[in-house]
Amino acid sequence: MPDAPSEPRPTSLYRVAVPLRWSDMDAYGHVNNVEYLRLLEEARVEAFRAWFGNHDPVLGRGVLVARSEIEYLRPLEFRHAPVAVDMWVTRLAGASYDLGYVMRDPESVGDQVYARAESTMVMYDFAGARPRRMTPEQRETLGQYLGEPVDLRRRR
């Protein structure tokens, strides 16, 4: 499958190295498509810790995944080297934002791109059971990673 003609140029890109697990493989010997979402989740949790600190107000106060869209570009076989997940913010709104991802080889391994994805995150008040607006501090932090939308095929 073809790669995107160009990769996004966010203000600041955050890269997370996510280890693969033997149990991520399916019967075909490659990382199962469902596990890609888990790898993105692990990258997202690490990014939130780095962006917002150890006492993460985003995860601590509540954030939900409202949408995930992923394009699988090539099979990812199990290996001991981690997969790199590049992340950035593609949209900021009052109570939600979109995160873009590119799952690729780390530079020390190669230059393959395995998937592109985007998730819509919603700030959520669990006590009130409703979305909540993000704080000015959260908006400022997320704005540091603002970039172009992910180049998904359906948008071309």
UniProtKB/TrEMBL annotation:
<protein>
    <submittedName>
        <fullName>Acyl-CoA thioesterase</fullName>
    </submittedName>
</protein>
<dbReference type="InterPro" id="IPR050563">
    <property type="entry name" value="4-hydroxybenzoyl-CoA_TE"/>
</dbReference>
<dbReference type="InterPro" id="IPR029069">
    <property type="entry name" value="HotDog_dom_sf"/>
</dbReference>
<dbReference type="Pfam" id="PF13279">
    <property type="entry name" value="4HBT_2"/>
</dbReference>
